[in-house]
């Protein structure tokens, strides 16, 4: 058995796959076009630390993530902020993550009795079926058949969609409620997953430590996966020395789905299925100020669709002077054409209309994820099946990523684990 696996992409799916392969006695080579690992959960090195430029939080229930963290002996974790704040009806509303009677009453006033009952039923359904709301158990397929003929704005009260539901659709997929389907929403809602955590230092340290344990070739782009007679035959790889062919019989592609046609010559029906899986662009701004911007009671804000900012939060609960602004949603996408400085000033201006910034800015960094966040689509399981059926038809090819088992890093690792199992059990 060939135990050498070639992995395209050094994000969480790629490096997680390399980790699982090594534990199973397989070797791997990871190709990454950028100069550092991490992908869309990446980071920017500073002289005295890091800016985290993408996903950084993980849930207590992500067993694969904690397996890797424990293997790396990275166990110093911080809890995330204890409440969320949403702009509803033009006012900032605060809700604890474990809502008491006062918060429930406040939410009922803002989204109405109908919206409140719909929200309660949705949460109860998620909690009841949290272990079956995946693409293996069939429960998501039931939801798709019943609801995915129209987005959530056609099924739920307008105030509910513009408030709590938009919080989930924007944060997880950069999508507006009218771009989100109920199956997507149930899949991404973080109820029943346990408390959110983040590394005390930075997720950048996690990725660097993980990458150091494997053969990761940075600044190396895979231009083409070579397929002959429905079998993997090799790769066309380009680095500073030019392009060369690398012989390979087993390849794992962990790129975002919309990049898959760039490296594999796909049949037209597979290309059409890929187009059904949406990726919405976002920009993430890290900014530090001389003194605190957030307060102990307000460490995150979810904006409504009248703002270019989708949401923002303190980078850590003990670093209230360090702010992460996310430009997302329909209006946010319009602002991505601005320069970095213009984008920062726009974010600060909108933020200050809710919580005034009274301290000078020290430094900032803008990261534009133009490929964006995966927001799935209507009847996603049908598109997924077409894509996966093609992959199964090619001997030695596997895929992993945010479009298979879920949007978050934990789900990316679930997809990685499945791909690794297919290799190791072949």
Structural summary, described in words:
The chain is α+β, with helices and mostly antiparallel strands and 426 residues long. It folds into two domains: 4-75 and 198-276 and 378-424, FAD/NAD(P)-binding domain (3-Layer(bba) Sandwich), CATH 3.50.50.60; 83-194 and 278-375, Polyamine Oxidase, Chain A, domain 2. It has helices spanning 12-23, 63-71, 101-128, 139-147, 158-173, 182-188, 203-212, 260-263, 268-275, 329-334, 340-352, 380-392, 409-424, and strands at residues 4-8, 27-31, 43-46, 49-52, 58-59, 77-79, 83-88, 91-96, 196-199, 215-217, 221-228, 231-239, 242-247, 251-253, 278-289, 300-302, 309-316, 319-327, 361-376, 397-399. The strands form six sheets. It has a five-stranded parallel β-sheet with strand order 10-2-1-14-20. Strand 3 (43-46) and strand 4 form a beta hairpin. Helix 3 (101-128) packs across helix 5 (158-173), helix 4 packs antiparallel against helix 6 (182-188) and helix 9 (268-275) packs antiparallel against helix 12. The longest helix is centred in the first third of the chain and has 28 residues, at 101-128. The relative contact order is 0.18. The model has no long low-confidence stretch (mean pLDDT 92). It is an enzyme of class 1 (oxidoreductase). InterPro entries: Amino_oxidase, FAD/NAD-bd_sf, Flavin_monoamine_oxidase.
């Amino acid at each position: 058995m060939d135990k050498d696996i070639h992995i395209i992409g050094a994000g969480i799916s790629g490096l997680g796959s390399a980790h699982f392969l090594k534990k199973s006695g397989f070797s791997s080579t990871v190709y990454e076009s950028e100069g550092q690992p991490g992908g869309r959960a990446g980071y920017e090195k500073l002289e005295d630390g890091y800016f985290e430029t993408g996903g950084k939080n993980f849930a207590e229930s992500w067993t694969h993530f904690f397996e890797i963290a424990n293997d790396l002996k990275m166990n110093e974790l911080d809890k995330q902020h204890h409440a969320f704040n949403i702009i509803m009806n033009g006012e900032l509303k605060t809700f604890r993550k474990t809502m008491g009677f006062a918060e429930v009453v406040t939410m009922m006033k803002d989204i109405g009795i109908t919206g409140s009952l719909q929200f309660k039923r949705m949460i109860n359904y998620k909690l009841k079926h949290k272990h079956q709301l995946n693409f293996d158990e069939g429960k998501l397929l039931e939801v798709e058949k019943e609801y995915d003929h129209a987005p959530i704005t056609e099924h739920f009260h307008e105030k509910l969609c513009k408030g709590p539901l938009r919080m989930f659709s924007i944060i997880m997929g950069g999508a507006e409620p009218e771009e989100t389907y109920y199956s997507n929403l149930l899949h991404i809602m973080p109820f029943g997953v346990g408390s959110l955590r983040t590394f005390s230092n930075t997720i950048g340290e996690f990725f660097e430590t993980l990458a150091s344990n494997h053969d990761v070739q940075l600044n190396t782009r895979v231009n083409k996966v070579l397929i002959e007679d429905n079998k993997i035959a090799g790769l066309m790889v380009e680095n500073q020395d030019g392009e060369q062919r690398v012989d390979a019989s087993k390849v794992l592609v962990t790129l975002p789905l919309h990049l898959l046609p760039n490296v594999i010559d796909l049949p037209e029906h597979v290309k059409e299925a890929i187009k059904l899986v949406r990726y919405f662009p976002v920009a993430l701004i890290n900014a530090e100020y001389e003194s605190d911007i957030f307060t102990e009671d307000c460490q995150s804000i979810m904006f409504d669709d009248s703002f270019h900012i989708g949401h923002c939060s303190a980078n850590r609960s003990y670093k209230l002077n360090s702010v992460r602004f996310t430009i997302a949603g329909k209006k946010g996408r319009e602002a991505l054409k601005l320069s970095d400085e213009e984008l920062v000033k726009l974010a600060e201006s909108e933020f200050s209309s809710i919580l005034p910034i009274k301290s000078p800015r020290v430094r900032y960094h803008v990261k534009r994820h133009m490929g964006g966040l995966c927001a799935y689509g209507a009847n996603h399981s049908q598109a997924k099946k077409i894509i996966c059926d093609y992959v199964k038809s090619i001997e030695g090819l596997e895929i992993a990523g945010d479009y298979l088992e879920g949007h978050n890093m934990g789900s990316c690792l679930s997809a990685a684990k499945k791909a690794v199992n297919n290799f190791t059990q072949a």
